[in-house]
């Protein structure tokens, strides 16, 4: 005897089976995430963080383990390791001319005018001119408009939890590495994981001090956050409460701008410095001379525009 199901019953059965499969897959994924995070969570607890707090942060829906973050980083480093010297020299251009084009410069100048009162107040306190701060903000986040598409905490956690390149070796595109290159790869991956762990710990501390949910802070692929794009360790050392509301919020204009000025001043910035010495200070913000020269050039252009059209 053949059992015949009516169409509504067939649809119900299929939906039920789909729901069961979804639940099973979800549980399997959750278990895999738990196993991947376990060593990292234990390390954080051993370093003094509260177990309940750590479990809560890692239970956020955004906390899905993915070695892809570390894979992409190591791909870049491997590419640079094997890059011919001529290409390395070509990559080190004078400055990034995208930021001195008319559209971005016009936006930067408009921002300077709109926030001139705040910027001049900060200049008097720290000795960092409005043009330099606006140049930094332009290059870092397009004046606060590009803040990253995923949580900084998740990005750092995925790197910190991926110290072994053999877990994603097939995805690197370098299956024929020489023994000395394999040694280098394992060492550099471990170094990057340890660096990410240090930044992850700092982000937890910064978040706790300033009443933030670390799993909800948007950031760059490698963990920088706020309109000033500070790394967590930088935030702990140099971020300040610019608007005096009792907490540091690097997504707040007052806090972020003053924190940037504080960073530059504490690294030796003075308006009287030579160009060479100014570039060295800017380099500390982002370790790239192309970046430093770009900030310097944008600031020069803004000063030129301001000398003609104000404000004074």
From TrEMBL:
An example Gene Ontology biological process: peptidoglycan catabolic process
Transglycosylase SLT domain ranges (all copies): 34-272
SUPFAM superfamilies named among the record's database cross-references: Lysozyme-like (SSF53955)
Pfam families on file: SLT_2
One Gene Ontology molecular-function label: peptidoglycan lytic transglycosylase activity
Superkingdom of this protein's organism: Bacteria
Regions that span the bilayer: none
PANTHER family for the chain: MEMBRANE-BOUND LYTIC MUREIN TRANSGLYCOSYLASE B
Protein name: Membrane-bound lytic murein transglycosylase B
Lineage: Bacteria, Pseudomonadati, Thermodesulfobacteriota, Desulfovibrionia, Desulfovibrionales
């Amino acid at each position: 005897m053949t059992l015949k199901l009516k169409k509504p019953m067939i649809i119900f059965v299929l939906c039920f089976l789909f729901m069961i499969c979804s639940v099973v897959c979800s549980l399997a994924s959750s278990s895999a995430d738990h196993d991947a995070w376990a060593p990292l969570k234990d390390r954080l607890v051993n370093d003094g963080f509260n177990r309940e707090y750590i479990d809560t942060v890692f239970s956020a829906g955004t906390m899905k383990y993915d070695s892809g973050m570390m894979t992409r980083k190591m791909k870049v480093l491997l590419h640079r390791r094997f890059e011919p010297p001529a290409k390395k020299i070509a990559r080190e251009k004078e400055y990034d001319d995208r930021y001195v084009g008319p559209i971005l410069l016009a936006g930067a100048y408009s921002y300077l005018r709109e926030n001139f009162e705040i910027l001049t107040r900060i200049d008097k306190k720290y000795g960092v001119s409005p043009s330099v701060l606006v140049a930094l903000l332009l290059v870092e986040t397009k004046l606060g408009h590009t803040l990253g598409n995923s949580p900084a905490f998740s990005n750092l956690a995925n790197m910190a939890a991926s110290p072994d390149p053999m877990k994603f070796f097939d995805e690197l595109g370098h299956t024929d590495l020489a023994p000395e290159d394999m040694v280098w790869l394992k060492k550099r991956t471990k170094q990057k994981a340890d660096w990410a762990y240090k930044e992850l710990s700092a982000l937890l501390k910064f978040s706790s001090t300033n009443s933030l949910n670390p799993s909800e802070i948007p950031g760059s692929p490698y963990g920088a956050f706020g309109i000033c794009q500070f790394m967590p360790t930088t935030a702990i050392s140099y971020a300040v409460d610019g608007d005096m509301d009792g907490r540091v919020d690097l997504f707040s204009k007052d806090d972020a701008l003053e924190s940037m000025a504080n960073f530059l001043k504490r690294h030796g910035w003075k308006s009287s410095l030579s160009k060479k010495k100014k570039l060295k200070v800017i380099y500390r913000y982002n370790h790239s001379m192309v970046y430093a020269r770009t900030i310097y050039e944008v600031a020069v252009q803004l000063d030129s525009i301001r000398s003609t059209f104000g404000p004074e």
